[in-house]
Amino acid sequence: MLLKDPSLLRQQCYINGKWCDAQSKETVAIANPATGAVIASVPVMGQAETQAAIAAAEEALPAWRALTAKERGAKLRRWFELLNENSDDLALMMTTEQGKPLAEAKGEVTYAASFIEWFAEEAKRVYGDTIPGHQGDKRIMVIKQPVGVTAAITPWNFPAAMITRKAAPALAAGCTMVVKPAPQTPFTALALAVLAERAGIPAGVFSVITGDAIGIGNEMCSNPVVRKLSFTGSTQVGIKLMEQCAPTLKKLSLELGGNAPFIVFDDANIDAAVEGAMIAKYRNAGQTCVCANRIYVQAGVYDEFARKLSIAVGKLKVGEGIGEGVTTGPLINRAAVEKVQSHLEDALSKGATVVAGGKPHSLGGNFFEPTVLTHVDSSMRVAREETFGPLAPLFKFTDVDDVIKQANDTEFGLAAYFYGRDISLVWKVAEALEYGMVGVNTGLISTEVAPFGGMKSSGLGREGSKYGIEEYLEIKYICMSV
Ligand code: ADP
């Protein structure tokens, strides 16, 4: 990995403004998912180091929250600029540890930076309220204050954006934060810490710890100093963390799994729907929590959609993310490949037909062919489980009410998409879908200006937008007798 600024690649953690090794000196090697080659190593930290990072966050809190919003905003703004100034290096680092194509990695750096820019601005807009008193001598005011020390646990599919989407609103609100990145993608997280340090964010305000997920997680959840945990990852782990946080009653933001339906109605613009499906399904090799998982196509356009989607999928170029023109990188690891393979075999055994791809890629390793299946039905695993890979199952439907029912027939409720043009149908379906985010005639819904989050087993809370900062604020009401 040839970085313009090699000092961005760190093999130590960032705690209380210092770069440190694990107390045990233990390290773990991190491999490139495209080649299996070792990139570098990071410390294996655990409970003790997490405790120290939390203590530092507590110590840093009073001075950080005492700054004016404008002062905090200015430091965040500098952090934002540094992400952009170093976007080539950050993108290359991300592609090397995560696998996504370089163009997507660059897109993620811009997206990650956008949260810092947004919340640097929002810091100044944490408004309170005045309420007419309930008695003649009473005056009532509502103020908002930072919740305090916070912790974040993040996944590997968006190594930069999942951190900034949490850290930016936390820091803007006046909170401090300790972050545990995913074990697969520590280097991007540590590079963000380098840039935070350069931006003048004070010691202890933002720390990054790598290592033993369970040891770090236990301390984050049980330490009473931590007043809030923000997690993005699987529903299974989210539930566990919620249980672990219960005794100290922490505030929680949980952005968990999805099982997104993508519905194409007869009156849709099919070319636009295909374009949307390509983004919603195959971005990041199908490894996003808002990826289209179940594609429902109305009978009148099913064949046309299947044909056009297969042609588009045939044009995807699979390869190492740094390769010229590559659109689809490797999956994150062997287990991810096996899950796609098992969903595929289950569907084929129950009567599905492959119309594009359909097997592990000839490149071997963690590469899988972008795949399209027809003749899919609700008895198959693809109908119920998140595949998290480049496999598009096409379900055929006829009735609108029936497809809404099928779309909602899942424990998840993160993102949903549909394509149609009849205005009454659009409103009816948009309102009926039990999802936190609905894309209508678009396959790309993520932006820092809108609230990202889910219903049901997809989680709690919203990230981004004017709502995102509320997750890091307490409401205090002051009743004054005059
Ligand atoms: P995925 O299957 O996509 O890796 P996970 O939910 O397992 O999703 O992981 C998301 C994040 O949660 C990662 O940073 C991982 O290390 C962390 N994690 C997993 N299990 C635990 C746990 N028991 N306690 C704390 N963090 C955990």
From TrEMBL:
<dbReference type="InterPro" id="IPR029510">
    <property type="entry name" value="Ald_DH_CS_GLU"/>
</dbReference>
<feature type="active site">
    <location>
        <position position="255"/>
    </location>
</feature>
<comment type="similarity">
    <text>Belongs to the aldehyde dehydrogenase family.</text>
</comment>
<dbReference type="InterPro" id="IPR050740">
    <property type="entry name" value="Aldehyde_DH_Superfamily"/>
</dbReference>
<dbReference type="InterPro" id="IPR016162">
    <property type="entry name" value="Ald_DH_N"/>
</dbReference>
<dbReference type="Pfam" id="PF00171">
    <property type="entry name" value="Aldedh"/>
</dbReference>
<dbReference type="InterPro" id="IPR016163">
    <property type="entry name" value="Ald_DH_C"/>
</dbReference>
<dbReference type="InterPro" id="IPR010102">
    <property type="entry name" value="Succ_semiAld_DH"/>
</dbReference>
<dbReference type="InterPro" id="IPR015590">
    <property type="entry name" value="Aldehyde_DH_dom"/>
</dbReference>
<keyword id="KW-0560">Oxidoreductase</keyword>
<dbReference type="InterPro" id="IPR016160">
    <property type="entry name" value="Ald_DH_CS_CYS"/>
</dbReference>
<feature type="domain" description="Aldehyde dehydrogenase">
    <location>
        <begin position="19"/>
        <end position="478"/>
    </location>
</feature>
<dbReference type="InterPro" id="IPR016161">
    <property type="entry name" value="Ald_DH/histidinol_DH"/>
</dbReference>
<protein>
    <submittedName>
        <fullName>Succinate-semialdehyde dehydrogenase</fullName>
    </submittedName>
</protein>
